[in-house]
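Record filed below.
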Amino acid sequence: MEKHKFVVEYELRSSPKVLFPYISTASGLEQWFAEKVKVLPDHRFDFQWDGDSHMARQTSHRLNKAVRYEFENTGETEFDLNYIEMKLEVSELTQSTYLRVVDYSQNADDQELLSMWNGLIESLKEIVGS
């Protein structure tokens, strides 16, 4: 099945140091991204939504900058795995922090993805007071 790369960016009124634990740790991700998140050996995470388990490996971790999760067992080759990448960038001009999300999967419905990410980011904004 053909993959689709969905990219969206959100302005958050919080510093990368405050935001990074919410995108890189199980306890942070559980607060806004997934119902339950468990950390397993070898940088693996078990994300749970609607009672279903989705295994992912944290393949990139740049402190206060970016994190990437590649999902396992999706029937794809190891060179074309579904992934979610989240990057924190600070605008030098405005000093605003932006969260850039890249969602690479079979879901090609941009409206559905935008609606889903808007809802998730609204939850994150409530938590960090943004």
Q: What stands out?
A: The CA atoms of residues 56 and 99 lie 20 Å apart.
